[in-house]
## 1
Amino acid sequence: MTIFRNLINGEWIVPHEISRNVSPSDTNDLVGEYARATADEVQQAISAARAAFPAWSRSGIMKRHAILKKAGEEIMARKDELGSVLSREEGKTLPEGIGETVRAAQIFDFFAGEALRLSGETIPSTRPNIGVELTREPLGVIGIITPWNFPIAIPAWKIAPALCFGNTVVLKPADLVPASSWAIVDILQRAGLPAGVLNLVMGRGSVVGEAMLDSPDLAGISFTGSTSTGKRIAASSVEHNRKFQLEMGGKNPMVVVDDADISVAVDAAVNSGFFSTGQRCTASSRLIVTEGIHDRFVAAMKERMGKLVVDHALKSGTHIGPVVDDRQLTTDLDYIEIGKREGAQLAFGGETISRDTPGFYLQPTLFTNATKEMRISREEIFGPVVALIRVKNYDEALETANDTPFGLSSGIATTSLKLATHFKRNSEAGMVMVNLPTAGVDFHVPFGGRKKSSCGPREQGRYAVEFYTSVKTAYTAA
């Protein structure tokens, strides 16, 4: 089998160590063998990116536009192939995998356009006969560290703006799912990127990630992952006086009030809690339901959950694929036991299941009679496990929704314009959904949260310029 190599300074490097990328839908399915970088190779990649920065940062905007546009077009043309690889390595269903790949293509297309739209300002000084120019310049070498749950979309929404605005990049994808990132880097390299502009260093966080954090030559780090790792990145970035952007955990609420349309509420709750196997930072693992609709909502949820098909990610008709690996499955099962011990009622699911292929299959799980103090209601599980909290009214629902250290996404199911408007204004989250799942954000709008969910400028859309550039103020006397 071909070994997929790391890319440093335009060269595919012979690896010292490899990892086996195995499908969680079928542990006998080897997706590929991928190189693991050493700490020395990480430093070589950073040095290459630093050397490439002066020329790339001053490259013409049409050159950047053309490369990003070409990459987006190839990703879109290969969406079925790349989506299948994504689903094999991560476990989300094939329609989800293809949909994520399409989103990656759209992101590259969007930032190809942004390369042509970068602008500044010319304003008068308070002093006569002096002009002021405000322009944006690239930061330098950007370290990008991405998670396993969105193997192609998240690398795309970090790499594309970094390159668009003239930065060079060192990319470390999650060791668990390297195939999708490798494909993006290969596509960009063939699209015409100069050597050293984009470097790929796959491998363990304890080796590759730590080497990146220890380097004084990174001007910025963009990270999506766990809160604990985010704290480590923030501390190291302060030490090295570099810019950082962190997207971390979530414990997102979906509020269902008495006047909600049951069908709409159930659709939003099932999608939010269980699609992509609940492995989304925007997933809603807390359902907060007012007492007037509670019993009907629970009955409808259980009925809908009974119709969900859990099976191989590539199999037609599958609604929910496997958990990503054995460690995450153990975490999910541990939290299910915690919920039982805490006194919540296991209303549906909670068991592993067998399928035709060996994989990490878990029933979607719903706890009722949960309280907001329980660990299953406060800690991010990152699996298809949802806690339902019963409340008296909307006011208690809003208070409960905001009673969390996280603040990424939130949702409400209601037919009341008054309640929808009030919730949008008073929900302590970076993104708010009305009669929609808490997961699902368009590629051209800002993504990010509040509290412990996010730190630094927003990602995606035109707001991405805030992180990947620095503002310069220049004066000229007449």
## 2
Amino acid sequence: MTDLFSKAIAAAEFIRQRFPTRPRLALILGSGLGDFAANVADATVIPYSEIPNFPQSTVAGHSGKLVLGHIGGIPVAVMQGRVHAYEGYLLNEVTFPVRVLGLLGAEQLIVTNAAGGINTRYGQGAIVAISDHINLTGSNAAVGPNEPRFGLLPNSGQRFFDMTTAYSPALRTLAIAEAAKQGWTLSEGVYIAVLGPSYETPAEIRAFRTLGADLVGMSTVHEVIIARHMGIEVLGLSIVTNMAAGVLDEPINHEEVMEIGKRIAGQFTGLLTALIPQLGERRGA
């Protein structure tokens, strides 16, 4: 069987034939946020189904397209949707797109998701910068043989790698400052990841709050683990699309998640379109 590195190289080479420019930054759009990709100028759109070895999205709100082009003059690669372990994918499949984005040359990753709000200070529709995460999915995407060839930057690709600053404080500082310029407050919070696909019970949410979690979701952490293994700098943004189980006396449903994503689209777009050029300049690429 072809090894993971060779599969990722094949996917990256296919994409590079369609879009030769090296993307400085990659962006993964979570549930209800895919419309942001319309802001990519001079876009080259590639369905995941055309990319060799690429996993296919099966969840509503994840259209399954890779959009390459420019935002504010910065070359970007934007994923309209992701895959999840609860869909039946192995973790090396869930994180395969991050491997490919790194091989394309992206040194920064903005990862976004729809999340349940555990911290009652957040309201529905709040955008929160992830400061750290707790992985309760039951596994780790770096399990298995280590492949040092994925270490694209100095001190990356190691068997044991540091996660102290998994979410870049410098990128968060820029995001918080940009939100303030736009007249709103970007809060920070800890994201706890569970396997899904069922939503959590009220007892679980009480336990997660005791652990120090502010947000809960079913994605993101494995993508971040692999990004850090490769040396990619990460900014995480959660959209509080619903309050977690037991916070409000009402049921949770995926339609509400999608609706809130659409409702905050303007604020989300305003933040990212202003922030991406700043990140590109900071990297000096």
